[in-house]
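Forwarding these from the shared drive since the link keeps breaking.
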Amino acid sequence: MKTKLTALCALSALCGTAAAAPVAVDLSSWTAEGQGTWTNAPDNNSVVQTVNGIPGVYFNGVDSQGQALSGTIEVQSTGDDDYIGFVLGYNAGDIANEDANYILIDWKQGDQNYYGGLGRAGLAISRVTGALDDASGAWWHDAADGVEELARANTLGDTGWEDLTVYNFDLVFTEGLIQVFVDDVLEISLPGVYENGSFGFYNYSQANVRYGALTQQVVDPDPVPLPAAAALFAPVLFGGAALRRRAKRAAA
C-alpha cells in the first residue's frame, strides 16, 4: 500500500489535499432551522434529531469551503424510510429563502410516491435555489420547485440506508469541487461552482437519527477530481475519519 501511495503522489497533486490534522467538532454553537428537535450529546460532538417532520437543518454558521467534515450517521430506529443527509454552502434563513443557493446531499431508504412524484431510494446531490419545504422539491427533487438534482451516488444511487447501521462519511467542500465518501467509498465527486457557506446536517421526515464522532480539517482549496484508479486510495488522502479508522485497525 505504501509503495502504491508513493507512486500515486508522484503522479499527481493529491497528496497535498489534506493540509491539517482533523480536530473534533464542537456542536454547542450550531443552529437549527426548519422543523426538528436536535439534541447534542454531553460532549457536544454528536447530535440526535428526534422528530418525524418537514425539512430541517442543523448548521455551523461559518463559511466552510476548504474544509473536510468526517463522522458517522445512523438511523436509530426501525420505523419510517425517509431522508437523512447534509447541506453545504448553507446560510442562515436559507431553508425559507426563495433566492437560496446551496447544495443538498440527501439519502432516502425506500421508494415512495408523494407530491406528484417518486422520492427515490438512494443517495443524491442537488442544488437548492428556493425555499425547502414539505413539497415536491424536497420530496423528489423537482427543479420547478427549487431543487435540481445534479447527480446520484456511484454505488448507493439507488440503494437506501439500513436501520440501526452506522455509516462513516467524509465530505470535502471547496469552491470548485464537492466529494462524498461513505464507508471509505467515493460516492460523489462533482466539479462545479459552489457558493461559500456552512456545513450542516439535514433531515426530512426521519426521526431518531444520530450524526456523530465529528471531526473537521483544512483541505487543499482546489483539490484534483479523482480518476477511477485514484479513488481506490482516496480515503487515505481525503478522509480524516478513514485515516483514523485505518490506524485503529492497524493497532488492533
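-- next protein --
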Amino acid sequence: MTGWTCPAPLRDRPRVVMGHGGGGALSAELVQHLFAPAFGGDVLARLGDSAAVTLGGVRLAFSTDSYVVRPLFFPGGSIGDLAVNGTVNDLAMSGAQAAYLSCGFVLEEGVEMSVVARVAEAMGAAARAAGVEIATGDTKVVEAGHGDGVYINTAGIGIIPDGVDLRPERVVPGDVVIVSGEIGLHGVAIMSVREGLEFGVDVESDCAALGGLVRSMLAVTPDLHVLRDPTRGGLAASLNEIAAASGTGVVIHERAVPVPAAVANACAILGLDPLYVANEGKLVAFVPREHAEAVLAAMRAHPLGRGATVVGEAVDAHPGLVVARTALGGTRVVDLPIGEQLPRIC
C-alpha cells in the first residue's frame, strides 16, 4: 500500500455536508485528503491564504475565493464588498499589495437586474477603495431554484516585496500574538439579519480591505512571521492552523481578546464561542517579541488597527495546541472547530 492516500475525508461521511465549507476540521480534511492528493504540487501543499510563487524572477501572491453569503446585503456590506475585500485580504496575508482581480458571477434565473447592479456597484467601489483593478471576468446563469440569486468567485494577484516572508513555519516560541481589533462582528451581523434576531444594539460587519494596515506593519519591519485573516472558523481556526504548521504551542489570554459587548451578548444567548465567529476585516499577527511594541503602535495609528491588542504568545509547551488562560485562572483547550457555527457567512 505504498503511496496510498485516502480519497475522501476521514470522518466517515459519504456525502458533502455544510461543515465541509466551514473552515474547520471537516474543511481541512476535505482539502488534505481529497483535493491535495488529486491535484498534487508543492505550492498547494503549503495551504496558505494565498500561494506565494515566483514567476519571471518576481515573487507573486495568487489567491482565489468564492462567496455564497446569504443575505446578499447586510449591515456594513454586501456580497460585492466581501468578494473584493476577501481576496485583497488573502493576498495581504502574504504581504502583497493586490494589483488585479478576476470576477466570476453565477446568477440565478429570475434574480432582479437591480440586485445584480447593486452588487456590481458595491464591487467596483470596494475595488477602487482598495486600489485594485477588476481586470477580467465571466458570467453564468443557472436555472431558478439552483442558487441564491448571486454567487461570486474572485481571484487576485499581487507582488510580494523583497525581504517579506510570511508563513507559519517561521513562528518560534516567544513570538507575540496581536489581533487588529474586535472580533466576531461579521458573523453576528450576518446572523442577526438572516434570522431576524435583535440583540438590543445594531451590529455591523467589519468587512474591510486590510492591505493598507499590512503595509504600515511591514514599514516597521519586514520581519513579521505570519499573518492570517480569521474568517471562517474565526480566530480559533487561524490560531490552530498556525500552531499545527509551526509546531509551536499558542497561549492566549481570554480577558485580553477584544470581544465587543454586542458580540459577547449574542454569543451568550445562542451558546456560541466568540473565538469561532467569523471576521472579515481583522487580522492576527505573530510578531518577533523585539518588534512587537513598534508594530502594535503602527497598527493603532491606522484606522483599521485602532483596537489592536496583544492577546497571547507562541510557546515551547504543548506543540500544535492552542490553549486559553481563563479569567478564573484556569486553562482550556481551544480546538479546531469540526464544522461551522454559522453557515454561509462569506
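The longest strand covers residues 97-108. Residues 267 and 273 are 6 Å apart (CA to CA).

- D.
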